[in-house]
Amino acid sequence: MLKINNLHNKVETQDGEEKAILKGLSLDVPAGEVHAIMGPNGSGKSTLSYVLTGRDGYDVTDGEMAFLGEELGELEPEERAAKGLYLSFQYPVEIPGVPTITFLKEALNAQRTARGEEEMPAPEFMKFIREQAKALGVSMDMLKRPVNVGFSGGEKKRMEILQALILQPKFLILDETDSGLDIDALKTVAEGVNTLRSEDRGMLVITHYQRLLDYIKPDVVHVMANGRIVKSGGPELAHELEAEGYDKFIGEAA
Amino acid sequence: MGAITHTPAEKTLIDLLDGAEDWRAAARDAVVRFGLPTKRAEAWKWSDLRRASQGIETAGQARFLINGETAADRLTVSEDAALELVAEPGISVASLEIDVPAGARVVLKERYKLADGAFPTARLEISLGEGAVLERVVLGDTPQDSIPVVRTRIRVSKQSHYRQIALTFGSKLTRNETHITHAGEGAEVEIGGVYLLEEGRHADFTSTVSHTGPGGVTHQLVKGAAAAQAQGVFQGKFKVEQAAQQTDAKMTHRALMLDDRAEIDAKPELEIYADDVQCAHGNALGAIDETALFYMRQRGLSEVKARAMLIESFLAEPLDMISDDVLRDELAAILRQRLGAIG
């Protein structure tokens, strides 16, 4: 479903110099599978999420990334979103003045229009969002507030998952979804993610800690270091990392 | 000062005002002696009227209409009304005095209907009686090739409430002056302003609020956005006389530069002679939040749509001051439509 081959990129640092972050990353996530990427800070995990979703300044310098057989590199972020690529942000952005409900309605209809589908009628949308919000314990009052403004870290992450439930993407990238969550919030968010698991949907779970993977069970775990995948294995690899640390893998990458 | 060489626009204006009385005579005298204001005059340093008026050489006609009828020079308005400034091409002058009687509650909808090449100088004097409430909602949707210069003086009596909300899209040069004498003693003033300037447009909000009596409340919020080669000007001044103790006045101007080549000039000023007052001013310039833009695009919104939503959410705040929902929605819709064009 998502095929990444020998991916390279560079970003501009604050002193205006170019720095290579991804250095030949390869990864293949078939439909129906959940893959986890674990790695130390600075290994390029968040960069990978931005390269995949097309953020400005995160252009590919070499290699390929194909989603459902189509090369992503030349597509705008909104085109990738309409094709079904969804990023749950590590730091969800506050948008003052734009009510969450308006934002989601506009986003959903923009995606549907881009795919040549009909817009969702307003009453149907309201029913849909009410059901999904209830399941996640999000009140309608919160949905009327501006996007993420004044929300706690946990509420923001819950909103990211709610947005995914509304937009129903084909592929989710969860970037450090567990950061800033207490154990109860983590369970709620994980339940939301698990309801999205299905035969025709893939997921990439980026995390620093193994904790999240107790609740979102991955099919495959990859270890990332120095801009590459240095080891892949089953769920047991996460426990191995937790017990032994990243050091021996970083050694392998150097 | 030596004699100046008048531009064709100045010559036309001098001829137009030949033999005039009162303020027109004073205006003519000023043009004879100094010409139209240029950037060398402190109050006009970001709005060079002499330069903008180049190419306009003929006299035109301007007049005020009240509820569709030509207005007399002086009116009493005690119920909701529609005021229009209509100007043909060329240089013109118009004047109107409005009395809002004690205790009256009035919403005044004001519109500018200007032809291409119109350069009207309009003078509006508004006087609020004790306890009167006036809400003035101004829409400046003017053609690029026009130069509206509108100077409004407002006398706010004690216990009265004056609220002004202006939405402008600018033009070659737009000067919107508001000068308020604020009696305090239960009187309140609210000034809201929004400017959205497409490429090559200019708009200037210049205002003074002079607090002359005790306990006056003033709240000013102006927000703007300017595209490439556009220029937004905000000059706000609060003056608090010694008699105006316990004045509570707050001035805020915030603007978005939509392009590196946009220009925003701001001069907030406080001039305070009383010692027991609360006065504050804030001024901030920024650019669109690129992180928010990416976030919205990642959710599927086009760049144009995401940008428009961000600018709208930033600009719309002063429109919330409009008390009438229908009127507020009307202005918000006009703003949204213009945002669609700015991309």
At CATH level 2, the architecture of the domain at 2-92 and 169-253 in chain A is 3-Layer(aba) Sandwich
Fraction of residues in H or I helices of chain B: 10-25%
- What is the number of E strands of chain B? 18
The main sheet of chain A comes to: 6 strands, mixed
* Rg measurement of chain B, Å: 20 Å
pLDDT averaged over residues of chain A: 92
Q: How does the overall form of chain A come out from the CA principal axes?
A: globular
- H/E element sequence of chain B: HHHEEEEEEEEEEEEEEEEEEHHH
**What amount of the residues of chain B lies in strands?**
35-45%
Number of helices, counting only DSSP H or I runs of 4 residues or more of chain A = 9
- Count of helices of chain B? 6
Oligomer: heterodimer
Search tags:
heterodimer, A: 254 residues, alpha/beta, Rossmann fold, 6-stranded mixed beta sheet, 4-stranded antiparallel beta sheet, 9 helices, 28% strand, globular, B: 343 residues, 10-stranded mixed beta sheet, 8-stranded parallel beta sheet, 6 helices, 18 strands
Structure commentary:
The complex is a heterodimer of chains A (254) and B (343). Chain A has 254 residues and is α/β, with parallel strands linked by helices. Chain A has nine helices and twelve strands. In chain A, α4 (122-136) packs across α6 (153-167) and α6 (153-167) packs parallel to α7. The longest helix of chain A is centred in the middle third of the chain and has 15 residues, at 100-114. The mean pLDDT of chain A is 92. In chain B, a hairpin with a 2-residue loop joins β1 and β2 (69-70). Chain B has a ten-stranded mixed β-sheet, covered by helices on one side. An eight-stranded parallel β-sheet of chain B has the order 3-5-7-9-11-13-15-17, with helices on one face. Chain B has six helices and 18 strands. Classes of the chains: A alpha/beta (254), B alpha/beta (343). Chain A binds chain B through residues 53, 55-56, 76-78, 80-82, 86-87, 89, 92-98, 103-104, 106-108, 110-111, 114, 146, 163, 167, and chain B through 289-292, 294-303, 305-306, 309-310, 312-314, 316-317.
